[in-house]
Protein 1
Amino acid sequence: MSVIEDPFGRKFPYLRLSVTDVCNFSCSYCLPDGYQKTGCESFLNISEIERLVRAFASMGTWKIRLTGGEPTVRKDFVDIAKMVASVPGIRKLAFTTNGYKLPQRAQGYFDAGLRAINISIDSLNAQKFHDITGHDRLNEVVSGVDAALEAGFEAVKINTVLLKGINDGELGSYLDFVKDKPISLRFIELMQTGDNQGYFKEHHLNANIIREELLQKGWQLQKREEGAGPAAEYSHTDYQGKIGLIAPYSKDFCKSCNRLRVSARGDLHLCLFGQGGHSLRPLLQDDDQIEELKETLMKLMSFKRSSHFLEQGDTGVRNNLSSVGG
């Protein structure tokens, strides 16, 4: 079996697969004006997704995360999840969500085969949550965390984008939140994109500030698990939950890269901040094309760069993160 590998010896067991660009929230750091229809909303259908997943799984990919936009806005999201979970070789199926209607839907997502969930909560203050997302749904989303735990999800994680002057004073509240919950809460550095440069300059906060606070409070860095995402995770004996830090501007961040991305329109993105995508969609139309698809994937890996070069101000062509699944 050919395993997906790049020129730097990195292997890729993890695929982030976007199923839609559409999002029903309007977060200030991503889609402050909400999702704007382009008239070209022709996203991969379930048959195309199946062929794509089968190809990746046959090349050593065993973890898939369904993303968006907001993936659950697709009416066939549960059907997609059931299909992906049934593909031989897929050992872990995850998804990222803003938590919309999660209290009512968590059990159904679990029953579809999803086993890991990342929920975005950028503030535990109701007014700040509204200001960031454009929605007054904090209580609903927090209830969704409990519903996911009750449903039996193996991994429940919270994503929190660090925003200077907005939520950077909430570390104590977040620590209280994970005190008695077996969840991982990850602080993510705000990343610069093509359309948020002013926002980035005003609100970017270096994750080292949080790291120092954690170390002072007795939190300890944990060993990275196989197939894990980019977070450096910390634990504390007095807490059930863990705290993770995702710091893309840190030195050697890309050395542990283990994931590829495919957009909702079928474009392979070798990096979140790469120079555009490579269309795979023409090779997703027939089962007989899977071998050609695999050969194409192997060839495209030669173009993967050693780093995203964000620290040099290179944002590639990425206008916002919703267009490629974050």
Note: Confidence is low (pLDDT under 50) at residues 311-318.
Protein 2
Amino acid sequence: MTAPLLSLDGIDTYYGPVQVHFGLTLEVRPGQIVCLLGGNASGKSTTMKIILGLLRPRAGLVRFDGQDITGLPTPQVIRRGIGSVPEARRLFGAMTVRENLLMGAYARSDRAEVLRDLDKMLELFPRVRQRLTNRAGTLSGGEQQMVAMARALMGRPRLICMDEPTMGLSPLYVDRVLDLIATVNNEGVTVFMVEQNASLALQIAHYAYVLQTGRIALAGPASQLARDPRIQDAYLGGEKAI
């Protein structure tokens, strides 16, 4: 079996005296879309912070491509090949869309290749091309999500981490964003996505974990979890959750 591209092993995380993760362990293998599901306050977004170096766990290891990256500063994590599409997009609202996209390549020095990648992003995200000279803060939520995805891809990541990519989007843009995630994955980028909408995430994922109060409640191939009658209980924290 192929070695994991990303792994979290025995992660314990705290905010002050409050423990958020309890021995969290998961894997993301190359070429997969892996989703981490869970309700509010389950620890999903904290998991993303651990991976990206925004928060250091009290115990456990984060490995990327076999190397320990636990607690590395975020710029170093990005340079190692992990891209980030944060919750609520977090674009530079006063800057143009083009400037936002180029910010995604800030760590690169191959200018000619950066410009070629910019053209590629505009082919992949035609809506973004239409808004290239607009200030990012004037775009709709769905358009901003596309810009955030394209910005992350400008860094040529091997793994892209997406935090709640469908949150706050209209149904039309939800479907479009999911299609784009699948397209990006088909082009060779591994995807780890945190998502609250289980039914949507399981449509495109290969493997899924369900996080409940800092512990993995369910895990397995997405197609199996989609048929599992326990998924809604585990996801919502109901009485039948495992």
Note: The chain has a mean pLDDT of 88.
